[in-house]
Fold each of these.
Amino acid sequence: MSEVSPEEIAAAKRLFAGHCEFVAGAANFEAIPALALPEVAFVGRSNVGKSSLINALTGRGALARVSQSPGRTRQINFFQLGDVLMLVDLPGYSYAQVSKALIAEWQKLIFDYLRGRPNLKRVILLVDARRGVMDVDREAMTLLDRAAVSYLVVLTKTDKLSAAERAEARMATGFALKGHIAAYPDILTTSSLTGDGLDLLRCHIAALAG
Ligand code: GDP
C-alpha cells in the first residue's frame, strides 16, 4: 500500500473530487438499498473523526455531517462516488452504547447490512491514534471477523501525535490486530486536519472501485 505511483494518487484524487452525493439512509434492513456498486464502509467509535475523514477524503465540508443531523445518526448512510463506488457511513459506536441492548441494536443493523452484501469490498475501521484500540473497537473487530468482512484499520487525528508517538501507535495497533483473522495486514495513519495519509487511503479505496 505504501508503494503507490503518482499516477495512482492523481487518479484517486480525481475520483474523490468528482461527483459525490447522498443517495440513501437506512435505519433498518428494509431501507438498505439494493446491491448496485462496489461498497466501502466506514465505522468507528463515536467522535473518532469519521465524518471529518469522509468530508476530507471527498473535499466536501459537510457531506457526512449533513446526513448526521440529530435523529439520523443511527442509520447507515450511502454516498455514491461517481458511477463506480458507494461510500457507506455506518453508525458510530461509543462508550454510552456499551450497554448490552445498544450493542445488540448496533450489531443487528450492521449484521443486517453485512448479510448478503457481496459487493462490500472493505470496511474502514477508524481508531483514534491517541487512544489506540479500545474494548469497543475489539468488539467491532470480532463482529467483522465473524462476518468474514475484510477490514482496514485507519488511525485518525495523527496531527495530535509526534512522529515517535505515531510510530508507537501504529506498532501497538498492529499488535492489537493479531488474531483478528479478517483484518487487512496494513495500518494507515491519517489526519483530516493536515491531510496526512489521505492520498494513500484514497488509493486504497479507489483500487476497490468498479
Ligand atoms: P465522528 O463522530 O466520528 O463523525 O467524529 P467527527 O468527525 O465529528 O469528529 C469528532 C471531533 O474530532 C471533532 O471535534 C473534530 O473536529 C475532531 N477531529 C476530527 N478529525 C480530526 C483530525 O484529523 N485532527 C484533529 N485534531 N481533530 C479532529
Amino acid sequence: MLRFAQTCEAIAATTKKLQKTAIVADYLKSRSGDEAAVSAVFFSGRAFAAWEETTLQIGGSLLWRAVAELSEKDESALTAAYRKHGDLGAVAEEVLPHRSGQGLKILEVADTFQQLAAARGPAAKSALVRDLLARATPLEAKYIVKIMTGDLRIGLKESLVEEAIAKAYGTGLADVQRANMLLGDIGRTLQLAVEHNLANAKMRMFHPLGFMLASPVESAEEGLTYFAEAAVEDKYDGIRAQAHVSGGVVKFFSRTRDEITESFPELPDALAGLPQDAILDGEIVAWEYPQDLARTQRVVDESPSEAGEMKAVGLGRARPFSVLQQRLGRKKVSEKMLREIPVAYLVFDVLYAGGELLIDRPLRERAQILDELLAGERKVLRHGDTEAQRKIGTQGRLTFDSEEEISATRIIRAPVFLAGIPEELESLFVAARARGNEGLMIKDLASTYAPGKRGKSWLKMKRELATLDVVVTAVEFGHGKRIRVLSDYTFAVWDTNTNNARLVNIGKAYSGLTDAEISEMTQWFLEHTIEDHGFRRTVEPKIVLEVAFNNMMRSDRHESGYALRFPRIVRLRPDKTPEEADTIERVREIFEKQNSHS
Ligand code: AMP
C-alpha cells in the first residue's frame, strides 16, 4: 500500500496529464497482475469496481471518530486540521502517529474493504476501520481514507487510468475504453489488457453506462445550425433513467449511477416482458393518464379549444417535476402514492439490444430498433399521430382494448417529430409547452450515442423560469480549493405579510461567480459579519444576487416554505438595493404558474 500511496503523491505533484499517466503506467507494470488490478480500481477513487453494487457504507463521522480515537487528538485540533486541508485523508496523515513495521499490502486493504462492506452495524464497521488504520503508516492511512470517502483528489480521472493501462500493456486506448465501458470494471479491464484479450469483453448488464448529455440553444434558428437532419422530442421534466432488462429482471439507474428501481415499483413489470435483453434510455415522469383526467369532460363542456389540446395529448401527459418530487427520497412508496402519483417511463433511446451494443449506430437506426423493440411489447403504447408535423418511425395510432390497459401502460415510446425550418421547431416548442413539458430536445439523426458526453449532437431548447433577485443572509466557507473563501451563500426574499417586512431564507447556492468576484465578496463578508459560527457566518443583508433555478417546490427546509431546485447564481446585482429584491408573493406567483398543469 505504501508504494501505491507514494505513487499517488507523485501523481498529485504534477499537473501534466502525460506525466500522470506515465507514473501510473510505470507503477502498474511493476506490480503483479492482481495488485495492478486492485490498484487500477483504487486509482479511480473507488473501493470496488464500478459495476458492483457493494458499498462500504461508512459515513464521514465514523471515519472522523476512528481518526480521533487513534490520534488521541481532541475535537478542536481535528477541526483545525480539517480546516487547513479540507480533506479527511490529509487530516489522517497529519494527526495519526508514526509506526514502524511492514505497512500494509494493497491486497490486504482490498480484503478489508470486502469485510467492511459485509459487516453489519456501525460497531462492527468501526472496529474494522480502526484496526486497518492502526496498522497503516500515516501516508497509507491518508489514501485509505481518501478511497473510503470516494475522492482521491490527485487530479486523476478514470480516463487517465485507462490511458495508463493502454500505455503499460501496449494495447489500443479505444479498446481499453470500450472494454471498461462494457464491463464497468477497470480492474478486470486491466487483466484483459495484460492478456491482450480486450476484444472479448462482453457487456455486463446491470451496471449503468454513461448518459449522453445535451447542450443548450437559445433559439429555434440556433437549434438547426449544427446538423442536417433533426429529430425532435419533447423535453420531459422528470428523472433521467437507464433501464436494464435481462432475463425478466429489470433495474433502473439514475444519472448519478445509483439504482433507483425501488422508488418506482410499478415500472419493472411493465418492461420485464421485453422479447430481448436491452438497455434503454428515457425519463421517468409523474404521469396523468387520460382516465385520471376527470376534468377532461368538464373542459370539453366549458372550453372547446382547450379540449382540442387535451385530446392531442392522447395517452395522457407529464405532470410537473414538483409532483414527482413528492414520491422521491422515500424508502418505501406507499399504495396511496402509487395511486395518486403514478409514473411512466418515456423511452427515447436504446443502447443495447439483441446482444449488440448499439451506441455506435446512428440515432436514425437506434430509433427504428427502439420502435420495433417496443412494438413487440403489447403493453407499450405510443402517442397517436395527432400532431400536424411529420413523424418518423413506425409510431401508429393508439390502440387499446380497455381503460385498464391504459393504466397498465407504464412504458411509452417518446414521440419523435421532424423539423427542417425554425418555424416548425417553434411550433413544436409551443406545443410541447402547452403539454406542460419543459421545451424540446433536438437530436442529430446521424449521431452516435456518446456516453457521458455533452456535445452538440443533442440540443435542448427551453425557456428558463423567471429568475429571482435575492439578498444574501449567511455565508459559508467552501470545499476543496474554496476552503479559504466564503463561496456558499444562503439567500432570502422579503416577507411583507407582517407589519415589519422581514427576510425569509429560500435557498443556498455555491456556483456561478468568478474567482475574482468570490474573493472580493469574501473580503466584504468578513468585514460585514454579524455573527461568526466558525464555518458559517450571518452577514449584513446588503448583497443582492440574481439566481436562476430549474423549478420550485414547497419545502420546510427554509423559512420561506419554498425551496429552489438546482439554484445557481446568475450574477451579482450591485445595481440593486436589498429593498428591491423579490418578495414571497412573487415566489408564490412563479410556483403557481409552474404548477398550473398539475
Ligand atoms: P438538463 O437537465 O436541463 O441539462 O437537460 C437534459 C435532461 O433532459 C436529460 O438529462 C434528461 O433527463 C431530460 N430529458 C427530458 N426529455 C428528454 C428527451 N426527450 N431526450 C433526452 N433527454 C431528455
Amino acid sequence: MTVTFPSELIERLRAAQSVAILTGAGVSAESGMPTFRDAQTGLWARYDPAELASPAAFRANPVLVWQWYAYRRALAEAAAPNPGHYALAELEQHIPDTTLITQNVDGLHHRAGSRNVVELHGNLTRYRCSDDGAPVEVTIVAKDAPPRCPRCGGLIRPDVVWFGELLPQHAWNMALAATRRCSLFLCIGTSGVVRPAADLPLIAQADGAYTVEINLAPGALAGQLNLHLYGPSGTLLPALVVAAFGERSSIG
Ligand code: OAD
C-alpha cells in the first residue's frame, strides 16, 4: 500500500532533534493484543475495570485479579511485535533523542528494539508487594493465586497502574520532560481519554511542538492536534519512516 504524507510532516521529521511519542493499545492491536475501548473486542467492553484493575478489586478478590493479569501476560508473551513497533524502534536509530512514552504494559516496544521507553502504566512482567510496594522478583508465575512477598508476607501484585492510582513519579517526570523538549510529538493508537497520559500531546502542542495523531479512526483527540492520519499504525508507521529516511539497507 502506497501512503502519501504531507511534506510538512516529512520535513519536520527529518529536521527533528528531539521526538516524543505516546502510544496506546492500538499499536499492539495488529499483534493480536486486545485494545481497551474498541466496541466488541475491547477489554473494557467485555470486563469491568472496577472488578479487575483497581486496588479495591485486588483487596476484594486477589485471586481473580491475579488470574486476569496472568492471562494478559500469557497473551503478551505469545504475541510478537508488529511492523509499527519495529518502525518506532527504527525511528530511534535516526533520531537518537526519541522518547517512546507508552501506556502499554505488554513490553512489545522493548522486544521490537526500542531503547528509550517510558512505561507510564507499568509492565505485566514486573511485580511488587501490595503492602510495602517494593519490587519482587517472580520467576515462576503461579497461574492460580498471587504468591506472598518473601520479606513481609504481603500479597504480590503486578507492577501496573490501576484505576485510582498515581503514575510512577519517575516515569511521569521523564515523559513530561521529553514532551516539553520535543519539536515533534506523535500520538499513536490511543483513544486519548485516560489522563494524565492524554494531556501530553496537548502540553507538547502548547509548548510549540508539531503534534500528529495516528489512529485507526477519529476519537477524542480529533481536530485538536496539528495533523491527524487515519489508518492502521502497522502500515502507516513503516511507510512514514521510509518516506522520511528511505529504505533500510539491513534488518536487525
Ligand atoms: P483504548 O482501547 O482506549 O484505545 C485504543 C485506540 O487505538 C483507539 O483509539 C483505536 O481507534 C486505536 N486503534 C485500534 N487499532 C489500531 C491500529 N491498528 N492502528 C492504530 N490505531 C488503532 O486504549 P488506550 O488509549 O491505550 O490503562 O487506553 C489507555 C488506558 O486505558 C490503558 O493504558 C489502560 C486503559 O484503562 C490502565 O490500565 C491504567
Amino acid sequence: MTDNELIEIAQQYRENAYTPYSHFKVGAAVLTASGKVYGGCNIENSSYGLTNCAERTAIFKAVSEGEREFAALAVIADTDGPCSPCGACRQVIADFRIPRIIMANLKGDVKTMTLGELLPFAFSDSDM
Ligand code: THU
C-alpha cells in the first residue's frame, strides 16, 4: 500500500461525509500493521459537539474490528494546503500510536509527519 493509494481510499470515503451543517467533507483511511485499511468520513450532528471527525471514524472502525497496531493514517479535504487533523483527533492518533500521518488535499498537495511532529509532548497513559 503506497501513500498515494491510502490517500485515494481516504478520498473515496470523503464522498460519504455527512455534513449538512458545515458542508466541509473530510475523508480518512488508516492502515494497520498487517496491511488492512479502514476508511472513514466526518459525521455531523444537529448537536454540533457530537460530530465525529473522519480520522476518528476510521480509527474507531478499525479498533472495533479488533485492530490495535497501525502503520499510517491518511486524511484529505478540500483545503488550501494539506488537511491538518484537529487536536482531538491528534490525541486519538497518539493513543493508538499511529506513527505516520499523511495529510492531503484535492489539489494533490501532500505533507507527511511523524506522530511526534504532529503532537509533541503528548499526554499518554504513562502520565496517569
Ligand atoms: N473535521 C474532520 O473530520 N477532521 C478534522 O481533523 C477537522 C475537522 C470535520 C468536523 C466537521 O464535520 C467539519 O470538519 C468542520 O469542522
